[in-house]
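Practice problem: predict the structure.
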Amino acid sequence: MPLSIKGLWAVAKLRTHLALGLNQAVGPLTQSSSLAEHYPHTVALITDETLLKPTISVVIPALNEARQLPAVLNTIHPANPVEVIVVDGGSVDGTAEVAEAQGARVVKATPGRSHQLNCGAAAATGSLLLFLHADTRLPEGFARTIRQTLAQPGVVAGAFRLTIDGPGRGLRWVEWGVNLRSRLLQMPYGDQGIFLKAEVFHKLGGFPDLPMMEDFELMRQLRKVGKVAIAPSAVVTSDRRWRTLGILRTTLANQIMVVSYLLGVDPHKLARWYRRLGKPCK
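Answer:
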């Protein structure tokens, strides 16, 4: 596949026009009434402020991620109340055991990211959901940031800024492009940690049953409901994809995938093509 900055820029421009053209606004979700409205004289006062905070359920799909998980889970547990669910897709490297040893709840599922994400969300008890990749570390104070972001008027979902755990000017350009796209188009991807209210997620029907592009499609649906905000703090994700394929090749492949999907190419064909490019190194 020939690579050039000119070609990459042309693909990115086409993708931006397509994404903006396909965005349609619809009315806000209907909010259900609270118990306090029906029984105004029987609601007890809560003096413990920690009980007033909505619980966050962190859902992590994983497949043979035993080496990555400890660092990721270590960034989660200091935040309470937080529920951690690792959805194991049949790992053979002890991923489930590592997750349980660090206090996470393990849910077994057939492999497939969208399926695993939906299984984790179905098992979650929190009123807020955070979908996190198994190689992405959360920033300090992430729980507070999530609550503050979702409390903004008109915001229906959010994600973090992206930092890539690797050296080099090329990765800094990738970060800049990702964060610019996320802010201007309201189109963050899964490696940025997507969060939203569980009620909103379930009303939309969860992640679409796709072999890939499930996060992209969910974002398109969420933008029809309200604003997708980008939190000021950043997650740190592994650079293994970029190390495997190279920065330009990975970036161009991602752009082609998005444009092809918007043009109606079968996601199963796209998934087969993407797998042929090579698997991320461990």
